[in-house]
Amino acid sequence: MAGGQGTGRSFSFKVVLLGEGCVGKTSVVLRYCENKFNERHITTLQASFLTKKLNIGGKRVNLAIWDTAGQERFHALGPIYYRDSNGAILVYDITDEDSFQKVKNWVKELRKMLGNEICLCIVGNKTDLEADRHVSVQEAEEYAESVGAQHFHTSAKLDRGIEEVFLDLCKRMLEVAQVESSRADGTSRHGTARRGVQIVDDEPQGQGGSGGCCS
Amino acid sequence: MAAKPVRKGIHVDHSELLCKKGCGYYGNPAWHGYCSKCWREEYSKARHRQIKEDRELAERLQKEEEAAYASSSSSSTTTTSRPIAFSKFEEKKTQEKARKVNTVKKFFTTSKTPSKRSMLLCCPNNFTMVRQHSVESSQAAGEFQEFLKLLRKPAAQDILKRCRACIEGIAVFILLPMFSFQPFNNFAFAGSLPEQVEKTMDNVEKYIMTRLYKHVFCPESTEDEKKDLAIQKRIRALHWVTPQMLGVPINESSPQVIDMVEKAITDIIEMDSKRVPQDKLACITRCSKHIFNALRVSQNEPASADDFLPTLIHVVIRANPPRLQSNLQYITRFCHPNRLMTGEAGYYFTNLCCAVAFIEKLDAQSLSLTEEEFDRYMSGNASPRRPTQEPSSLVDELSACPVLAPLHTNLLDLQELEKQQCQLESNAADLDRALVAWDGSVAQEVANVARKLPPKVQASISSFPLLLAEVAASPSGPLDSEVEDSITLPPPLLPQPAGS
Ligand SMILES: Nc1nc2c(ncn2[C@@H]2O[C@H](COP(=O)(O)OP(=O)(O)OP(=O)(O)O)[C@@H](O)[C@H]2O)c(=O)[nH]1
Ligand SMILES: [Mg+2]
Ligand SMILES: [Zn+2]
User: Fold this and answer.
1) Which single residue of A7, B22, B38, B455 has CA 20 to 30 Å from B109?
2) Residue B171, Cβ neighbours under 10 Å: how many?
3) Which residues pair with A13 in a beta bridge?
4) Residue of A77, A181, A203 to mutate, testing the B interface (most B Cβ within 10 Å of its Cβ)
5) Cα(A186) to centroid of ligand 3, in Å?
6) pLDDT at position A196
7) How far is the CA of B45 from the centre of ligand 3 (A)?
8) Which residues of chain B make contact with A111, given a CB cutoff of 8 A?
């Protein structure tokens, strides 16, 4: 193979943020991307679309984090938001049992739509309010395992556990992407082409001028 | 798309979102509800059918053409017969509708065995005559060539060659859901930086899509136009929806916010005037930025999706952008997929799709209204701006709805104009009356003077009052009669000896 080193690759991933209102989705992401919590965010115009660049084991990763409208009346629009996403972060508030039930609904929906190609993270936020916990740690972790998701505890307020969520998610998305790209021959795996695994590669993939518009 | 009244909230049934073929994967409206794989299968079937039909039509046309060719060459030399055949073709082309033009063009690119006639038409000069009449097209071609000069020679040539092939090829596969640039990736760019590749892609897209726009935007073979009209009608019917119902967190009394919302509206309307997918996306992005600015002025925290989406819905309802569905479909079909999937513009675009889906399915519950209220507003029998109580004062109403204000001033202006017009008319009538009166008084005076003259002179000028009466009675009135009367006037009185 001609061209650059193995470091020439960069990956772009789309991650949707799901969770009931007020569980702290926005807080978690702002904490992660800008390390801010509940201050006057003078420089932050919006927290609905944020990006973060990472470098994992020499691989460049561009993370695009999509906030979704969580109000009940927008619930049905979910599928439009999470189409083609590589990962989802499902946030609940550990003091709010109801928000955990909502997470379960979303997991069901995501698995149905996107199958196992989407990496899921379930996040119990507001651990600083441990005294007021209404969701059992054991139940949450068991549930996560049963649906093939990772479970994390965070506090956006105290900046606990947030880096770990995104790092773990990225690693898993990378694995999926690499499996997919290694399988990507002419008859590529279902959906590979339109999912967000953008692999800008300086090495020819040996695919030739397949398909496309000129055939 | 009519929302069933029994439905609560906006429900997109999951079954509706899965591939129509039931393979279990997720379908996409752009692929007519199939997943990408099943769509490709379905599509290639349809495509072969289409190609066959096109070929048949083209063969028919060709027979006609050859007949024309034969008759023209019998009357002229072979050298002149070529242009004649072509001009005949041109004539026929303009007579037939655009669809056929496309079909004819398709034939040239699909035909494996180029016929005499297709060779004739593909000869460069004629071909440019047929296609290159749009300013945008030639401009795009020029810009693209400029760009290619910056690249390495062999790569540039390869790209240009492929683009040309693409343009001709795509005229055939109008519905190709997304044309993949994958071949470029591998072929021309060994060792290039990702940014370079990206930039080239942008330019390629610009060139190809500007050239193809007319053929692939809202193509007749799709339902796009019908959907455009449907959503336009739907939005018009929803004019009564207030920002409060949508939960839009903007402060509408701030002129700054109003200004930004207006800008957002302008941007989203402008989308339709752009040709290149990325330019259309840029309009959506600008619109979104203006919305975020409006949100920032209105509240102190960074806007989340729950602030943004309702405001975008509000803007879309206010703007009722032209050919909305066609534009969304076009972007979905032809925008660089990565841009739509992970880019910021893709996020805004997705929100716009959500806004449209919401508007289509919107019902009483999604606005927190009762069914009765919703029905009354929809039927136009009531307006949320003026609740069922006393009609509020005009001033209240004006402040409640910024759109009414210019309407109101226009109305006042019109009233003022009408008053002035009435005044003018009555003045004209006065003038008319004064003239008639003056006319009479002159006649009277002449009569008076005449009476004082000696009897003989009186007799000789007795024709004067008659003359005056004649002038007054002429149909065009006393003012305008001058010209006509200079013709019909009796010869001037000559001095005559008294008593003769
Ligand atoms: N104590 C505590 N409060 C938190 C934490 N994270 C968020 N909050 C608070 O929870 C409230 C809601 O946070 P947001 O980040 O706006 O929640 P959201 O999920 O984005 O809500 P929506 O945008 O309405 O869906 C805010 O008052 C935050 O200050 C946390 O870790 N601990
Ligand atoms: Mg939020
Ligand atoms: Zn399918």
Assistant:
1) B38
2) 20
3) A63
4) A77
5) 18
6) 42
7) 15
8) none
Alpha carbon distance B241, A29 (integer Å):
32
Alpha helical stretches, state H, B123-152: 124-131, 135-149
The lowest-confidence range among B202-206, B348-352, B394-398 is B394-398
Let me know: does B303 contact A44? Beta carbons within 8 Å: no
Express each pLDDT in B280-328 by its tens digit. Answer: 999 999 999 999 999 988 887 788 888 999 999 999 999 999 999 999 9
Q: Which of the four pLDDT bands, split at 50, 70 and 90, describes residue B399?
A: low
Tokens at B227, concatenated? 């959907």
Average pLDDT of the residues of chain B: 72
| Closest of B335, B325, B326, B331 to residue B357, by C-alpha | B325
pTM over 0.90: no
Q: Which of residues 136-155 of B touch A (CB under 8 A)?
A: none
Q: Cα dihedral sign for B83, B87, B89, B90?
A: positive
Which atom belonging to ligand 1 lies closest to the Cα atom of A154? 31
Complex-level ipTM: 0.80
Are residues B396 and B389 in contact, defined by beta-carbon separation less than 8 angstroms?
no
Closest CA to B335 of B291, B284, B268, B286: B284
Q: Which of A35, A49, A207 to mutate to test the interface with B (most CBs of B within 10 A)?
A: A49
Rg (CA), chain A: 18
Tokens of A142: 């068991």
The length of chain A, given as a count of residues: 215
Q: Quick one: closest CA in A to B166, which residue?
A: A214
* Range among A158-162, A205-209, B401-405 with highest mean pLDDT value: A158-162
* B79: pLDDT strictly greater than 50: no
Beta bridge partners of residue A152, listed in sequence order: A123
Interface of A with B in 162-191 (CB under 8 A): 190-191
